[in-house]
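[agent] plan:
  1. take the single chain provided in the ticket
  2. run structure prediction with default settings
  3. attach structure tokens to the ticket
  4. add a short note for the reviewer (M.T.)
[agent] executing step 1
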Amino acid sequence: MTLKIFRKRNKKNQKNKVASLPFRINIIFIVVGVLFIALLTQLAYLQVMYGSKFKAEVNRSDTSVVTGNVQRGMIYDSTGQVLVGNSAHQAIIYTKGVNELSGDLYKTATKLSQFVKVTTGSLTKRQLADYYLANSKNLTAVEKKLPGLDGYSEDAKYNKALNYVEKMPNSHFSKSTKNAAEIFAKMSSAYQLSTVNIKDEHVSEAEVAQVGEHLSEMPGVNVGTSWSRNYPNGKSIQGVTGTVSNEKTGLPSDRVNELLAEGYSRNDSVGQSYLEEQYEPVLRGTKSQTQVVLNSDNEIKKEIKKYGGQKGDNLQLTINAKFQKTLQSLVKSAEQGAGGNSTGTYAVVMNPNNGAIIGMAGVNRNPKTSKITDNVLGNINSSIVMGSVVKGAMVSGALMDGVITPTNSTLTDQPITTGGVKKSSWFNHNGGSNISVDASGALEVSSNSYMMQLAMKEAGFKYTEGGALTMNPSIFNKLRGYFNQFGLGVQTGIDIPGESTGLKGATGRRHIGSALDESFGNYDAYTTMQVAQYMSTIANGGYRIAPHIVQSIRGTSKNGKLGAVKATVMPKVLNHIDMTKAQRAVVKRGLYDVVHGTNTYKTGGELDTIKPEISAKTGTAQTFYNGNETVTLSLASFAPSTHPQVVVALAMPNLGVDAESNNMQLAKRIYAAYWKEVQSTSTVK
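[agent] step 2 finished; step 3 output follows
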């Protein structure tokens, strides 16, 4: 009975299940139908309302601007000769596309390496590893060799792979692999839509031809032109003009952020020093601009050249190239004959009426090896104790101070003895040649005693032979104040960075004896450029003019030659010396008599053969170098004596103690070269 009841219930349940199945399927169909209708409705809505927008998005194109480098402005001498020019080279270049992946660069670099060989001396292990792992097969193979990478991020995995590859022996990588890795590194350094040189020197015709044949296989690669600096008159002029960075050095590390903000690329050429750096905005020019149109896949659809770029403007210098080359040769020759402990020779030739530097030469010498190297800028940054050459400024200061006058300036040259120390003139060591000299005569014979007596008078000190020197130390400031007015001990204002102010000795009370040394140029140190400015100030009537080496900024003509003047450097008067005409005449007469006077002890008699005739002041300083006694010879002069048109200043530090006329012999050669190569004597009044 129970079994029958169970069977009846089981049949009833089966009938209920069969009856509910179609109902559930219908529910599912209804839900799917509703969702499908909703989807169609949404698609229809989007098509009607936003169809045009989406279509525009698919066909969207972005516009970007690609810039290209232009030829740098050139640097010319005063006669229009090229001092710093540009050499054009064929180059293999690469312009990085948008969203380029390392795998894309790997393929292009590997292909290009088949046709182009580059130097790999600067290739780092990291760069080699990056190239090697840019091949996905190599990356997978390396990761398989590294256990326990599960759970690491992709970056962490890559860093471990890098570490592994960097430790692989160098012999594992072939020359061709390294060549491709170097190319890959240069491509990787490029910014999006920026151009880098893959090879810009010694590109062979075969390389150009092969690259040209396969351009379609190497996206972004092309054949272009690069520029580098050349120096038709020799590289010694770099001491003045400075240098320019190249593809390898890139932007100077200490200015990279500043230059990037100004629109430079990391691989751009930029002036690194001196005129190249100072006049960078003038010389750099303006880059070309090409408008690049990209589609939605960041593929270049069109290129439109908007601006061809503008070559940089040119600098024309005051330097005469031919004379500069001769001057450097004369200075080097003089140094070669100096011997001993000599440490260099420097010379400046300038126009005293406008500050134009006509020539500036210099060399250093290593006394231990006798090796001589060019050092043109030693004229503005090497401080030298010059000796008696500064006495013209000393006499001028005393005249302005009123301790002597043009009609009352006679003193007796005698040894000065204070505190047990005796100091004297070169011709009167023991007092046996005591002579009376006025201010002009003191310059003629280069009297140290006269200058020391002037210093004591300016200090208000009454000299007593053998007595204590109790002058107030403020005398240092007074003497230097007058020297500064002529340019000694202060920056000259030359338009080249890095100028020294010279060196000042100690000025405490216990150094008061050195104030006497200061009066005749045997204490403070000055640059040769300062000496040239000082003599120019005397020559031109008391105007201290800033020396300058840039004459004008000029464009480029249609035929590529030096173009029209865009800006001219005008003489810059820094100060005027407050002296009367009579006071100036005293100093000028003394400088003239140094060469042409009648006194037996005149110091510049060897210069009287120079025509047109010159006025000058020679200098000899007792110095020490590496514990050895030496002398420094100097000279400052101008010509012609009546209407000065050129100043010659020179310094020869640390010569042997027996050196006597090296400075005058060099001066005679310099003047001869000047009148032959720069200015005809027929133009002299």
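[agent] step 4 note for reviewer: The CA atoms of residues 334 and 666 lie 7 Å apart.
[agent] ticket updated
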